[in-house]
Write a structure and sequence with these properties.
Radius of gyration: 25 Å
Number of domains: 2
Distance between the termini: 76 Å
Helix content: 10-25%
Largest sheet: 7 strands, mixed
Structural class: alpha+beta
Number of strands: 10
Oligomer: single chain
Shape: elongated
Order of helices and strands: HEEEEEEEHEEE
Number of helices: 2
């Protein structure tokens, strides 16, 4: 085999490899670039007194929702109405639920929490993260945000249906 035919064979092999790589590149399944959840922007801040933190529904991951260690089957009883006179939070313009996340919560816990809210058609949420170091008698701000979409366990998009 002379040099010219070896080069031709080598170029043919390279061309086939490039063709195969292009076919793979164009037909491969692209990685998921969408976020795990999307929240709508909010300028609505509510004030939460530290004495109120213990009575907030807390999302405990796979255990679900609890209030002071007792399991909850629904959060409907914890929906706060805008400018509710019994609520010291004030400032909200739509019904919302004020919930807590444990200090150790991560993005996956937040995603699971938001998914459970969407499944109950609770679309406005204010979240506080618990902190054992918070002084009694202090207050903190939480922002009421609309849940736009959350990815479920299978990667499907779950949108909030409530208005």
């Amino acid at each position: 085999m002379n040099v010219r035919s070896r080069r031709t064979l080598l170029l043919a092999v390279v061309a086939l490899l490039l063709l195969g790589a292009n076919i793979w590149w164009l037909t491969r399944r692209a990685g998921d670039t969408e976020p795990a959840f999307v929240l709508g922007g909010s300028s609505t801040a509510i004030t939460v007194d530290s004495s109120e933190l213990g009575s907030l529904p807390m999302f405990e991951g796979k255990s679900g929702w609890t209030v002071q260690g007792r399991p909850l089957s629904s959060l409907r009883g914890y929906v706060r109405q805008p400018d509710d006179p019994q609520s010291k939070t004030g400032g909200a313009s739509q019904p919302y639920v004020l919930v807590a996340l444990p200090a150790r919560a991560d993005a996956e816990t937040m995603q699971a929490m938001l998914l459970s809210l969407v499944r109950e058609d609770l679309c406005a949420v204010a979240v506080v993260q618990m902190d054992e170091k918070r002084a009694t008698g202090t207050s903190l701000k939480a922002f009421v945000q609309r849940i736009v979409l959350v990815r479920d366990e299978d990667g499907g998009r779950q949108s909030c249906r409530a208005a």
